[in-house]
Structures are given as C-alpha cells and as structure tokens.
C-alpha cells in the first residue's frame, strides 16, 4: 500500500512519464466510449491516486483503457439517453456499479474469477474487440463523417470512398501512429503522443485548418457528485458485472507477469479492491469505468517505478493539469483516432490463433465462436464474452474431467516441490498458480519441482496459462521441472514443460 514505502526518484520520473501519455489517451478513450472527451480526463485524475492506496502491484497503472471504453460504449448503447449530459451521468453510474462489483469480489476473496475467461475466450474476444475499436476510429482518422450504420459498415464505407478522405487528416493519422511506434526507439521515455498532440493543436490553432477538432473542454478541477440516474441501474447491472470481470483480466495479467519478474507477492483480491475503489472514485468524479492499462504499466515499469507511488503521482499530474487541458480544444479529431488505433492494433494477433489451432481444435473453435459473437453483437460486445465463457464451460463439462484441484507445497532449502491433485483446467489453474507464486515470494527459490503423479487431466487452457507463468519464472532465474508425469497427461504436460524429467 502507498504508506508502506517512500516515493523514489524513479517513481517521480515514471509517474510524470505515464501522465504525459495518459492525458491524450484519456481524451481518445472517452470518445471511444461515446462520451465527450473531457470525461476521460475526469476518469484519469483521481482514480489512479485512489487505486495506489489499495494496490498490490507497484507497477500497475490505472485509468481509462481502450477495452473498457469499448465495453462501456456497448453497455450504454443499450440504454436510451435523451442527451449527452444524461449519457455522462449514466456512464458515471456504470462506473459506480463496476466498482461496487469489484469491491464485493475482492472482499469475498473471489480474485480467481478472472480465470472464468479461458485463454481461447480472451484471444477471441480481444481480437474481435480490437478489430471493432480500429474500425470505429477509421472514419475519424480520415475525417469522414460516420453514417451511423454500424461500426464495421461505417469503416468499410469510409475506406471504400477515398474521395471523401481529408488528406491532412490522413497525414496526421500516419504521423501520429509512426511517432507512437518509432518514439520508444529514440528513447524509452520519448513522449511521442504528447508531442503530436501539442504540435497538431498549435498548428490547428495558429497556422492552418487541420480538419475537425474536439472542441471546448469544460474541465476545471474535479467536483465530486453522486447525482446519478439511479432508476437506470437495473438496465446496467449485467453489463456492469461483465465489465467488472472482463476488465479485470487485463490488470490481473499485467500484475502477475511483473510479480514473476521481480518475485514479489501479489494479491488478486487486494487488486480487485484497488480497481473497485478506482471505479467508485471515477464515478464520483464524473468519469466512466476504468481499468489497468498494459501499455502504461509497461511504461511505468521501464521508466523506473519502484512503488505504488508512481500511480499516485500520475493521477496528481493529471489533476493539476486539468485547467490547462482547455488549450487542447483545437486538437484535430484525426489525431485522437490515430492514438486509439496505434494503441490497440497490436491486439489483433494472428500467430496465437495459428498456434491454438495446432494445439487444440475444440479451443480454437471456442476462440472463433467468441470472435464471431463479439463482431455480430457489436456494439454489445459483452454478449460475445457470455457466449465464449458458456462454450468453454460446456466444453469442460462434457469432457467429464471434474472441477476440483488441491495443491500442496514442500520447501527443501532453495527448492520447492509442488504437488497438484485433481484436474488442471483453466479455472483451477488459478489455485495452482497462486500457490506457486506464494511459495517463491521469499525471493530465495532457485528451483521448482512439479509432481504431476496425482493430476487426472490437463486441458489446453491450463497448459497455456501455466506455460506463460513458468516462462516468466525461468526468465527470473528459477529452474522449473516436471516429475512423475502419467501417460494420459504427458502430451498436455509437454506444452507446459518442454523438457520433462521423466
């Protein structure tokens, strides 16, 4: 927690560096959620500060994210709103409900709930959502008026009518994406996005017409309020629960990976509380649902963060910058569209799909069904998640391998023997992973022996997830071995442990 350590110089540098990226992203992600850009700034100011107070991971950066923004747009699109102001209030109510759901899950120690989404569901959903996010920004990046016929339809029409493109918007978009990708090669802390935003805004204001701009940003300092449309809560409930679970999968993955690298203990339940409080704070501030950002957390890590203070510093920088953001009213919309495209294009991954197809035909079918459902139900992409999770559970039930897993550990000086008993599938893998990480959190372990003699079955979801964990541990200098592998589990175990001892 924030009181457990003093801020370091690395925290200060990292916090400021992330804030410089967060400000333009917050504007862009608010528009992705169908909200006025300034709402993103309100969501980005206080929520990182409050998240830091309760956080378990010293590196996780909280605030608006592309995936949560798209989920928010999907949920709000199913609620009739008479005005933009009312939509903003509905978004704040949704954030409050998401935060409450995560708080309840954290207090009830349900941190493993993120494992309800198998790797195949996550792959299908994130790929589908990324395609939709990119498609939604194409008209904006080309400064073409959307026809409101659907995300994919509007993107296809915009691409098919080059005569409607605004050359200056296309140039701005290309430059923005190029700077986002090439900037880190110049220096790991190169604030490429901020530079493009500031330069394009100045050019638009003082030099030439650069196309459509975002307009006035009515933001001063945050004024807490709970004047929310409480009567709409019933219609938002299912969507809020889905965002609470799905949106938690990303920060959980980030925190687990960084915990493995630095061998520190990480609590999924405490992180749920942290993310829950961040969303409640965003709601009170007039924002929308927030989550953990992979790109900003990675930047926070490489910039030298050493504690949760870096997240608090990020929020503080955004907070004191709010009055100055009014100067961005002449920021071209094409730049915001390109910022979103540049941030999420990496989520459209073909190689993992091919790898999944080679490893498990049933799982690739689950991924494909989730992808198709996400595209078909757009903008209600939360329904695509429900389809994927249902298919994953059905696939496991029909396999009749059981649901329970017990894990025991035994320490021998600098080595740990882990003995799982039962079925390793994508939900019980959470128990296994948690016990392993707890066993090595002392920082002295150099070897892990996994005794698989009592494992009845291993499904693909578990093997893929555990393989990633063990790769992380091996990179951290821990030798991982499998022993006593039964013939029935050998093929699946080989996907986790390429070099079996017997």
Could you please describe the fold and organization of this structure?
- This protein is of the alpha/beta class and 502 residues long.
- The chain has helices at 9-32, 38-45, 47-54, 66-77, 84-107, 119-141, 151-159, 167-186, 192-206, 233-262, 268-284, 294-302, 309-321, 333-344, 351-359, 361-377, 382-399, 429-440, 460-475, 490-496, and strands at 61-63, 291-293, 405-412, 415-424, 447-451, 455-458, 479-483.
- Helix 2 packs antiparallel against helix 13.
Mean pLDDT: 85
Q: How many individual β-strands?
A: 7
Q: How many helical stretches?
A: 20
Outline type:
globular
Kindly estimate the percentage of residues that lie in beta strands according to DSSP: 5-15%
The low-confidence parts are none
Which class best fits the helix and strand makeup? Answer: alpha/beta
Termini separation: 43 Å
Order of helices and strands: HHHEHHHHHHHHEHHHHHHEEHEEHEH
Provide the helix percentage. 55-70%
The whole-angstrom Rg is: 23 Å
Taking the sheet with the most strands, its summary is: 5 strands, mixed
Task: Walk me through the topology.
Elements: H1 9-32, H2 38-45, H3 47-54, E1 61-63, H4 66-77, H5 84-107, H6 119-141, H7 151-159, H8 167-186, H9 192-206, H10 233-262, H11 268-284, E2 291-293, H12 294-302, H13 309-321, H14 333-344, H15 351-359, H16 361-377, H17 382-399, E3 405-412, E4 415-424, H18 429-440, E5 447-451, E6 455-458, H19 460-475, E7 479-483, H20 490-496
Parallel strand pairs: 4-5, 4-6, 5-7
Antiparallel strand pairs: 1-2, 3-4
């Amino acid at each position: 927690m924030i009181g457990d350590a003093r801020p370091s110089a690395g925290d200060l540098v990292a916090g400021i560096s992330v804030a410089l990226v967060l400000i333009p992203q917050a504007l862009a992600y608010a528009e992705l959620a169908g909200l006025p850009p300034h709402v993103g700034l309100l969501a980005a100011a206080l929520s990182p500060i409050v998240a830091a107070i309760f956080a378990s991971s010293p590196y996780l950066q909280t605030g608006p994210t592309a995936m949560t923004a798209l989920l928010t747009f999907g949920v709000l699109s199913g609620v009739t709103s008479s005005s933009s102001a009312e939509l903003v209030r509905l978004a704040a109510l949704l954030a409050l409900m998401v935060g409450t759901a995560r708080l309840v899950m954290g207090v009830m120690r349900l941190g493993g709930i993120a494992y309800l989404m198998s790797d195949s569901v996550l792959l299908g959903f994130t790929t589908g959502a990324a395609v939709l996010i990119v498609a939604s920004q194409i008209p904006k990046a080309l400064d073409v008026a959307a026809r409101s016929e659907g995300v994919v339809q509007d993107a296809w029409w915009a691409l098919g009518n080059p005569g409607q493109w605004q050359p200056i918007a296309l140039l701005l978009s290309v430059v923005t994406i190029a700077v986002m990708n090439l900037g880190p090669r110049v220096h790991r802390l190169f604030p490429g996005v901020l530079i493009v935003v500031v330069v394009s805004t100045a050019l638009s204001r003082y030099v030439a017409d650069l196309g459509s701009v975002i307009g006035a940003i009515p933001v001063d300092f945050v004024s807490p309020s709970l004047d929310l449309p409480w009567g709409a809560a019933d219609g938002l409930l299912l969507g809020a629960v889905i965002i609470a679970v799905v949106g938690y999968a990303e920060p959980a993955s980030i925190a687990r990976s960084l915990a493995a690298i630095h061998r520190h203990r990480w609590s999924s339940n405490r992180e749920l509380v942290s993310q829950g409080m961040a969303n409640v704070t965003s709601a009170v501030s007039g924002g929308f649902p927030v989550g953990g950002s992979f790109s900003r957390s990675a930047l926070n890590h490489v910039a030298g963060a050493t504690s949760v203070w870096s997240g608090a510093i990020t929020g503080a920088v955004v907070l004191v910058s709010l009055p100055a953001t009014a100067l961005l009213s002449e920021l071209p919309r094409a730049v915001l569209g390109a910022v979103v495209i540049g941030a999420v294009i990496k989520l459209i991954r073909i190689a993992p799909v091919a790898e999944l197809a080679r490893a498990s035909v049933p799982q690739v079918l689950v991924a494909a069904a989730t992808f198709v459902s996400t595209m078909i139900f757009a903008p209600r992409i939360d329904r695509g998640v429900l389809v994927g999770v249902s298919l994953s559970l059905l696939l496991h039930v029909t396999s009749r391998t059981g649901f329970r897993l017990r894990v025991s550990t035994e320490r021998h000086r600098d080595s740990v023997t882990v003995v799982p008993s039962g079925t390793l599938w994508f939900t019980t893998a959470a128990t296994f992973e948690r016990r392993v990480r707890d066993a090595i959190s002392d920082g002295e372990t150099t070897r892990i022996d996994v005794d698989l003699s009592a494992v009845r079955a291993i499904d693909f979801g578990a093997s893929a997830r555990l393989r990633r964990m063990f790769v992380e541990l091996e990179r951290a200098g821990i030798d991982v071995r499998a022993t006593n592998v039964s013939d029935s589990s050998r093929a699946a175990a080989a996907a986790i442990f390429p070099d079996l001892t017997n």
